[in-house]
Amino acid sequence: MTHAATITSKRQLTIPARIFRTAKLHQGQRVHITYSNGALTVEPARALVSRLAGSVNVPKRLRRVGLDALIQRSKASYFAKKRA
């Protein structure tokens, strides 16, 4: 399925409604954009996360830690190092 679109002076691109619906995208959704061999690919950010899930070895000490707690720990550690 192909459609023509125009890039604005602010580098914004409107996705044609039919493609938007077919791709099951929604307003405010985060997307991942890749440029390769002259082509742009847009995919939902969650699709990228799902594709990469399991590809990183998680240390045993962190395996039972929830994602939110892990993010908080990482931020605290990062900013503590920046202040030092």
Describe the structure in your own words.
It is a single chain. The chain contains three helices and two strands, in the order αββαα. It has 84 residues and is an alpha+beta fold. The chain has a domain of 26 residues. A two-stranded antiparallel ribbon has the order 1-2. Strand 1 and strand 2 form a beta hairpin. It is elongated. The mean pLDDT is 87.
- Range of helix content: 25-40%
Structure class: alpha+beta
Give the helices and strands as they follow along the chain.
HEEHH
Question: Which value, in Å, is the CA radius of gyration?
Answer: 19 Å
Unreliable parts:
none
Spatial order of strands in the largest sheet: 1-2
Q: What's the main sheet like?
A: 2 strands, antiparallel
| Residue-averaged pLDDT | 87
The fraction of residues in strands falls at: 5-15%
Net shape: elongated
Separation, N- and C-terminal Cα atoms: 54 Å
The total count of helices amounts to 3
Strand tally: 2
